[in-house]
Amino acid sequence: MKKKFMYLACAAAAAMMLTACGGGGKDVEIDMEALASDLLETVTSDSLSQTSSDMLSSIYFYDGDKVDEAVAYTSSGATSCEIAVVKSKDASDTSEIEKNFQTRVDNQAELYASYNAPEAERLENDAIIESAGAYTVLCVCDDPDAAEEVLEEYGF
Known about the structure:
Helices cover 49% and strands 18% of the residues. By secondary structure, it is of the alpha+beta class. The protein has one domain. The longest helix is centred in the N-terminal third of the chain and has 20 residues. It is globular and about 40 Å long.
């Protein structure tokens, strides 16, 4: 009887663990322009310009065939502030977009280190890269705490 109970307990525990792992991807739908605009208005004092969509794959190093749409705002170079929102065609590609965003952050930090150390530190310490569903966001800004609040409102 004890053996049966142990087997049942182990099976129940295994089932609970597998169930806990099953909810990984959030099913969200986001107005990308609204999110980028809210971040732009809330978290940066720099004036950022919208970047042409045909340039984004070369700036952020992603495979354009895997991206449904993207929007980005970048600085003129005076600061490291930037906002990018990418919607992947498949939510399973968000980890690749996150890696691409991290490459962008690393490259920018290296660049800024040569002439504007505080901006390099901002990139190294405060860059936000998060995904929800098929969406991935990169935000480098003056107020990362406020950015996190905005992202939370959108389901990140």
